Amino acid sequence: MRTVKSGDVSLAVYEQGDPVNPTVLLVHGYPDNHTMWDGVASRLAVKFHVVSYDVRGAGASTRPRATADYQIPCLVEDLFAVADAVSPARPVHVLAHDWGSMQAWYAVTSGTSRIASFTTISGPCLDHVAFWMRRRLARPTPRNVAQVVAQQLHSWYMLVFHTPVVSTLVWRLGFGKVLARIEGLDRAPVVADAVHGMKLYRANIFQRMKSATEQRTGIPVQMIMPTRDRFVSRHLLDDVPQWVPNLWRRKVIGGHWVPAKRPAVIARMAEEFITHVEGTPVRRAFGKRLVLVTGAGSGIGRETSRAFAREGDEVLVTDIDVVSAKETAAMIGATAYQLDVTDESAMRQLADTIVAEHGVPDVVVNNAGIAIAGPFLDTSTKDWQRIVDVNLIGVVNGCRVFGALMAETGEGGHIVNVASAAAYLPSRALPAYSATKAAVLALSGSLRADFESAGIGVSAICPGLVHTPITNATTFVGVDSSTQDALRQQSTRLYKRRGFPPSRVATAIVASVRSNKAVVPVTTEAKFGLFLSRFAPGIIRRLARIGVDG
Fold first, then answer.
1. What is 2-277's CATH number, 3.40.190.10, 1.10.150.20, 3.30.390.50, 3.40.50.1820?
2. Residue range 350-388, pLDDT digits in tens
3. Which of 70, 106, 201, 433 is catalytic?
4. Domain AB hydrolase-1 spans what residues (predicted)?
């Protein structure tokens, strides 16, 4: 710890890490002090010189009595005073939260060369907020009014903080403990920090709303947006790109105090951004999705890979046939890997390689599958084991391995499991195939509920008759080889006559990620079949008797 003077105020400053390394300056919000950053600071200190400080009115720093002493210019002077003291010859990287971020915006937009980058969490620039609100009230459409009202409801506490006696009494009667319980914090805010910090609101909120000016910056800014923030609505940040051209937007699954609740996630995001600004090439462009598709050597998998590539995503294609995977990759400029989805060990090894070379996928499409047709009594145990391993266990492996990685990153993601209309349209001709696809559909519904808290969406895609190469590879049980070849040709002609291309399934897959829809029937027969399965199951049972005898 050391003390840094800023005018008449003494600021308590805390340092970790080697001062030779780039300096990361942590600025806490209200009603916190520097200890809010402890989990983040200890992790960043491995690679950086990490500095945090108690802002005026908090912790061991001076607590001015006059409300005017908490105005934005004073706070900006404090930030620069600390930066000059701890890193006099090199710009600092600022990481700020809540009110720490609000005040840091004005340092960042001052045109200074003292700041190398800015990572902001749950703390918009007040002038940006003023323009955001004016623009929506100038065009009072239902959507604009709803956004303004929503933010006003998020900001209810600001009016309370402008009533000195009541607000002070609320804190002294234990509101901090209630807040800590609601937000899941390990400790309640210090009452003295909360009481003195309310002057931040009284000194700045209404004044900045009235006299807002354009606040622009060319400094690289990373805006981390918690998905469950009770105090800052996501719409409040929609207009920021017009003032900050060099902007990266990232979501994090969590609430307002995500730096304290998920320090490893915030430290990783900050490190990725800062090292990029310092000159280290990033594994992929910020804001660009990484998509993994299994069974991408042909059919639906290949078209899905092409569809995501057209969206501008970085695509990784896998297939047990590495030659076909490379053909798909060559079409779209992707990276190909060989993968047997039934081999959990191989799946984990591939995941390690992908994380090291590209990062954690944002979207995983579990598409690999096979088809076995024919009567139940002619389907051997070996046949059952094979189709269960590929169609079900292969999906389970993909969900387990990559779902765990998505949850760990804290940024959410989406898993698409390709099932089939056969999942809810039983047929005496497809007992094994239907059973595995029904299992995939049921699994997807369970995972959707399980993964929701981690911000991971799960969609089950249920195509009907789609013309893909799977018909040429279908195993027909209980027949000789010549009959099997004839049945494959017959199936291929039927699916070709249906004329539904895999590209339309791919379009539905891309859309399902955007809409986070749980079950997506694709073809007309799949949609009608889903309707009948829910409202006329007797008809579905009668239709199940239709099949091709061996």
1. 3.40.50.1820
2. 999 999 999 999 999 999 999 999 999 999 999 999 999
3. 433
4. 22-258
